[in-house]
Write a structure and sequence with these properties.
Bound molecules: N-(aminocarbonyl)-beta-alanine, zinc ion
Helix content: 25-40%
CATH topology of one domain: TIM Barrel
Radius of gyration: 21 Å
Distance between the termini: 38 Å
Structural class: alpha/beta
Largest sheet: 9 strands, mixed
CATH architecture of one domain: Alpha-Beta Barrel
Length: about 475
């Protein structure tokens, strides 16, 4: 039997902050007790980790990643091996990635492909959502089977006509199915039909630079789609989780729905909190690095997103990690912004950026842990196995140094992508040591993990319902 004790740190969960010692046996937390108490002093262990001066926090749960994801004729540049390793470096110990149904093919086929991509490759634990690209009678039946296998959330797209887009009828049918099988609908809420008209008009007028990606994907088209998704979910009697919320008016739609006690939830991502249309306007095609959908918005939206995170109108911060190298991938859209693969890297930086937000006064320390670990675990049926430090939980634990200073850069990150979206950003606070089910995968900033340690983790249903 392996026994590890973490002594002397400040244990922070979404509910509590206490100076406590943590006892781990065979990969699970078995006890948390006041630091230095007689009880904790009596613990014997094969390994003792000194956490004096450190935060002891649950490993992050990133509920929105795209490893090896097909988009615009290419694939996102992190594999499950490189992406989960980078996640571990950044203090994330669980991720939920999106398996993709290809049009004309079964969900099962897409899910099998994703298992094959991830199997024996991951440094940390992982689960899957399923992207529905083709809602039909067969797909709807398959959804029930997937729920039984722990795929309890399905993403639908109101954007990307002809690729992953679903029309309102398909969306309603899929939502009705989730009302019966207990799954959660995740929505990419943008009016893709209207956006495609604006794309065509922009290109015809010679507006081809990356910044036009942001201009055609208008705030009102995100807000309209968010509103429509909420109404369709009401008709279906189903819960709804809106992914990558970027716009103030979309937050207002979510807030209005929640004020009516509707089971509607929202996620935002660090790129919308820290970056803006200024980045999309960077010269020499540099804006392409920041092309993602929903798009980056003018700076004023950031304060509304932060407020939403404080008031719980937004519940989760995920990364939507979907990296494409600048050279050879983002460059596919030189001369036509609509051909720039959509997505940005970030899986490594979420915990740090949110800790910086604590220091900058946007959120509290406990809210940091809630947004990055506890809430995504609850939202996607993983709590309390993941997302907290409590007896019975997996020992997915991060020792975080709140005073270490560092600079985010392509030269030091571990993601497989040739630029950093946060190049030069100074951060106070850094992940020092990471345990995944009790195994040390990062020890004092040296990677000690291995591909294949991470296990597929079937999920239960949303725990907010
Ligand atoms: N977000 C993004 O631009 N790319 C990934 C696919 C998606 O989440 O819509
Ligand atoms: Zn999306
Ligand atoms: Zn995404």
């Amino acid at each position: 039997m392996s026994r590890t004790v973490i002594r002397g740190g400040l244990v922070i969960t979404a509910a509590d902050e206490t100076h406590a010692d943590v006892l781990i046996e065979d990969g699970r937390v078995v006890a948390v007790a006041a630091a230095g108490s007689d009880y904790a002093q009596g613990w014997t262990a094969t390994e003792t980790i000194d956490a004096t001066g450190k935060y002891v926090i649950p490993g992050g749960v990133d509920a929105h990643t795209h490893m090896d994801f097909p988009f615009g004729g290419t694939f996102s540049s992190d594999t499950f091996e490189t992406g989960t390793r980078a996640a571990a470096w950044g203090g994330t110990t669980t991720l939920v990635d999106f398996a993709v149904q290809t049009r004309g093919h079964a969900l099962r086929e897409g899910l099998d492909q994703w298992h094959a991509k991830a199997d024996a490759q991951c440094a940390i634990d992982y689960g899957f959502h399923m992207i529905l690209s083709d809602v039909n009678e067969h797909t709807l039946k398959e959804m029930d089977l997937l729920v039984e296998e722990g795929i309890t959330s399905f993403k639908l797209f109101m954007a990307y006509p002809g690729v992953m887009y679903s029309d309102d009828g398909q969306i309603l049918r899929a939502m009705q199915r989730t009302a019966d099988n207990g799954a959660l609908t995740m929505m990419h809420a943008e009016n893709g039909i209207a956006i495609d008209v604006l794309v065509e008009q922009a290109l015809a007028a010679g507006r081809s630079d990356p910044r036009y990606h942001g201009e055609v994907r208008k705030v009102v088209l995100e807000a309209e789609a968010t509103h429509r998704a909420i109404q369709l979910a009401r008709v279906a009697g189903a819960p709804l989780y809106v992914v990558h919320v970027s716009a103030d008016e979309a937050v207002a739609e979510l807030a209005a729905a929640r004020d009516k006690d509707l089971p509607v939830f929202g996620e935002t991502c660090p790129q919308y909190l820290f970056l803006s249309t200024d980045n999309l306007a960077e010269p020499d095609f540099g804006g392409a690095k920041y092309v993602c959908s929903t798009p980056l918005r003018p700076r004023e939206h950031q304060e509304v997103l932060w407020r939403g995170l404080r008031t719980n109108d937004l519940q989760v911060v995920s990364t939507d990690h979907c990296p494409f190298c600048f050279v050879g991938q983002k460059e596919l859209g030189r001369g036509d912004f609509s051909k720039i693969p959509n997505g940005m890297p970030g899986v490594e930086h979420r915990m740090d950026l949110l800790h910086q937000a604590v220091l900058d006064g946007h959120i509290s320390r406990r809210r940091w842990i809630e947004l990055a670990a506890a809430a995504p675990a609850r939202m996607f049926g993983l709590y309390p196995k993941k997302g907290t430090i409590a007896p019975g939980s997996d020992a997915d634990i991060v020792l975080y140094d709140p005073t270490a200073e560092h600079t985010l850069s392509v030269d030091t990150h571990h993601m497989n992508v040739d630029y950093s979206a946060y190049e030069g950003k100074r951060i106070t606070g850094q992940v020092e040591t990471v345990l995944s089910r009790g195994e040390t995968v990062l020890r004092r900033r040296e990677f000690t993990g291995r591909a294949g340690h991470g296990q597929y983790t079937p999920r239960g249903v949303c725990q907010y319902l």
